[in-house]
């Protein structure tokens, strides 16, 4: 799936959340998208999921995102 479609799906899943939380998710998605290589992507993904995990309202979204 291309980045645009991923971003659109993420937006659909997070638009009901507080604006700050939605921005956190989109920043994390962008950080993963712009990773230099696979190793950097995996490191970034781990950090992003850790940040998201601190937000209780993202618990369901994290499960959805991790399955994709």
Q: Tell me the span between the first and last alpha carbons.
A: 10 Å
Shape: globular
Which runs of at least 5 residues are low in confidence (pLDDT < 50)?
Answer: none
Query: Number of helix segments?
Result: 4
List the helices and strands in order: HHHH
How many β-strands, per DSSP?
Answer: 0
Residue-averaged pLDDT: 95
How much strand?
A: under 5%
Q: How much helicity do the residues have? A: over 70%
Give the biggest sheet.
Answer: none
- Tally of structural domains: 1
Class from secondary-structure proportions = mainly alpha
Radius of gyration: 11 Å
Task: Give your account of this protein's structure.
The chain is an all-alpha fold. It has one domain (3-67). It is 76% helix and 0% strand. It has four helices and no strands. Helix 1 (3-14) packs antiparallel against helix 2 (19-33) and helix 2 packs antiparallel against helix 3 (38-53). It is globular, with a radius of gyration of 11 Å.
Keywords:
single chain; 68 residues; mainly alpha; 4 helices; 76% helix
In short:
This is MULE transposase domain-containing protein. It comes from Phytophthora rubi. With 68 residues, the chain is mostly helical.
């Amino acid at each position: 799936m291309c980045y645009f479609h991923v971003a659109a799906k993420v937006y659909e899943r997070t638009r009901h959340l507080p604006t700050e939380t939605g921005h956190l998710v989109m920043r994390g998605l962008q950080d993963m998208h712009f990773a230099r290589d696979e190793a950097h992507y995996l490191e970034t993904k781990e950090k992003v999921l850790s940040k998201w995990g601190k937000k209780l309202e993202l618990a369901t979204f994290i499960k959805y995102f991790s399955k994709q």
